[in-house]
Every structure is written in C-alpha cells, then in structure tokens.
Write a structure and sequence with these properties.
Structural class: alpha/beta
Strand content: 15-25%
Shape: globular
Number of strands: 10
Oligomer: single chain
Number of domains: 1
Largest sheet: 8 strands, parallel, barrel
Radius of gyration: 18 Å
Distance between the termini: 12 Å
Number of helices: 10
Bound molecules: magnesium ion
CATH topology: TIM Barrel
CATH class: Alpha Beta
Length: 280
Amino acid sequence: MEELPLGVMMGVGENPTERLAKIRAMGFTTVQMGCPPPEFWSGEKLQMIKEAVGKSGVRVTTVFMGFRGESYADIPTVRRTVGFVPPETRAERLEVGKRICDFAHELGVETVAAHIGFVPEDRSDPNYKEALSVVREIADYCKARSMRFALETGQEGGEVLLRFLRDVGRDNVKVNFDPANMILYGSGDPIEALELVGSYVVGVHCKDGNWPTQADQLGHEMPLGQGQVGIERFVGKLVEIGYRGPLTIEREITGEQQAADIMKARDLLESLKAKLLPPR
Ligand code: MG
C-alpha cells in the first residue's frame, strides 16, 4: 500500500460523484468525509454516495461526526457546544453518533472520528467520568462492527489526552492528530504531543495555524507551511514514529482560495514525502 497517501477533507455536497472526481483529478487517493446531513444516512441518497465512492478510485479513510448546535466561534463557545462533553446534548448526540457509525459502516469505512469536546483536566470533574463513559459506549458500538473511533486532537494538551486514552481503556479508541488545532486552542506544542500519543494515531490533518493572541479567542488558521506548526517537523516526526497512513489536508475556508491552498498544500506534502520518507 502507498505510504502516506495524500487526502483531503471533503463535505458531501449535492453531487458527491462530481466532487470525488474532482478530488481524484487533483491527485488525491483518499478523503476524510465530513458527516453529511441525516437524509444521506439511508435510502436513495445513501446508495448514491456508495456508488459515487465505489466508482471514484478514492478511498474514504474516515467519516467525521458533527452535531447540530456546535459552534467554533471562540473557546468558551466550543466548551459549551462541541462534542459529547456538554451534558445537555450528550444523550441525544450519543444516539446520533451511533447513526453516523452505521452510515460509515454502510460505506465500508473503518474509522469514525469526532471532536468530543474539551476533556476536563481534572479527573474528579463529573464530566470527566461522563466523557469516559460516552467514548466507551461509542467505542464498543464501533468494535461490534470491526470499526474504530478516533478522537480529533486540539482541545487538550498531549498529557491530558494520553491519560484520557488510557483511562478509556478500549483498544479501538485512536487519535486523529490535527497539529494546527493544538496551536489554535493554545493547548501545547503539537510535536511534543505527537511524541506522547503517537502510537494511537491512525489519521492526521495537515493544517497550519498561528497561536492565539487574545484570551478566549482561537488562533488563526493559515495555509499549510505558513503557520506555526512547522509542517516539515510535523511530517518528519510522523515518519520517525512509523506513521504511514494518510496525510489529509484540511483547509477550513471556502471558495477558490480553498482550492488554491489545497493544491499548494498537496505540492508541499509531495515534496516533503520525497525528502523525508526513507527509500523502500
Ligand atoms: Mg482537524
């Protein structure tokens, strides 16, 4: 299998066939799929996505969960609205999460991933226990379908994440490592965190960003190679720890600039792969 195949984060729009063809034409062989709206989870629209993926020559490596009511406006809002940690929406999102697992399973995708929300640093916080319990429940649901559940990094530092993974204690709970998020949330040096949780990493986002400059605000996302991640150092560390899975470009803007930045990111990653991967 190709080492470090390039991929891109895609949303399911009105025409997944067209979108996947475009992605393939851009030279990508893998995608991570943002969760489409519920009407795609069964029936005709599900069949349409299945066919589109089957014909595309592109492998869907991960389906991302997303929930109604989430907002990434600033750090307190993320804390209040994102993932499984906020108590008011937990039970409902747990059920939605399982439906998204079913959708991924229908597509033959082995990994589902999510921002689970801010894991409390204090283990005696009741939300810590609740977060453990919900992740275990999703993990066990995945396990019964030979799938795994990956936690998107960012909202906590490497040490908190590692402790949480150990406390969860499920062998199919993994990490989708986004180095830019760690910077955007001000949660610590991504390369140090990668060193800590490296053995759990099954997917990565190639994304860049600058540290926050104001309290409670997120940092600023940047085109790959222009932010403070140190993308060469990041890919170098991935190679060093033996990661050979997909490098999935994520650029969270829209329109022509997004497409242009993705192409540049692709070229940058191709050159880093040529430089950093040991000859086979
Ligand atoms: Mg990400």
